[in-house]
Amino acid sequence: MSDRDLAKELGEALVGVNRLARRSLRGGLTGPPLPVAQAELLRLVQSNPGIRVSSAAAELRLAGNSVSTLVRQLTGRGLLSRVPDPQDRRAALLRVTPEAGRRLREWDDRRAALYREQWKRLSAQDRAALTTALPALRALAALLHEESHTRR
Questions:
Q1: Cβ(113)–Cβ(28) under 8 Å?
Q2: Which pLDDT value is given to residue 100?
Q3: What gap in Å lies between CA 34 and CA 87, rounded to an integer?
Q4: Which of 8, 27, 71, 125 is most deeply packed, by most CB within 10 A?
Q5: CA dist list (Å): 80 to 25, 53, 93, 130
Q6: H helices within the chain, ranges in order?
Q7: CA-to-CA distance for 76 and 83, rounded, in angstroms?
Q8: How far apart are CA 61 and CA 85, in angstroms?
Q9: pLDDT in tens, the chain (152 residues)
């Protein structure tokens, strides 16, 4: 199989696993599901408390007005708070609310449980192969992250 075919197959497999996991986890949520863009913004803010809207837009590679719309939606749902930046009162600093933190933890816990359950169903050979592949997948993620920052 060529590198091109392997790369395509890897991408399809990763997207497929992620999509199927999301579908499986949506059932039993304790609130309405979050669209992917909203969840990505919440995760970014959770990792970077006090991030500005402009920085979030740059990090997510979205237009500022798109992120502003997401911020309005999430503040309206009580999942995000905007605090005026003491250095520049025109700018806002973003923070996840306790409710958003709870929902993100719940999702993470449920996702981990789902993968633990499926991990047990894999053959020992498949578990070993995935364990061996983890460093390469982390390296791929780091390269993708690096490229996303150089393309700004």
A1: no
A2: 95
A3: 32
A4: 71
A5: 22, 12, 10, 36
A6: 3-26, 36-47, 53-60, 64-76, 98-121, 124-150
A7: 14
A8: 22
A9: 888 888 999 999 999 998 888 888 887 777 777 888 999 999 999 999 999 999 999 989 889 899 999 999 999 999 999 999 888 888 889 999 999 999 999 989 999 999 999 999 999 999 999 999 999 999 998 998 888 777 65
Residue 93 makes CB contacts below 8 A (sequence gap 6+) with 50, 51, 52, 82, 83, 84, 85
Packing angle, helices 98-121 and 36-47, rounded to 10: 110
Predicted confidence at residue 35, as pLDDT, reads: 87
Look up the pTM and report it: 0.80
Q: CA 21 to CA 27: how far, in whole Å?
A: 11
Phi then psi dihedrals of residue 132, to 5 deg? -65, -35
Helix (H, G, I), strand (E, B) or coil at 85: strand
63 burial (CB, 10 Å; 0-12 / 13-18 / 19+) is: exposed
Q: Which two tokens stand for residue 146?
A: 């690096």
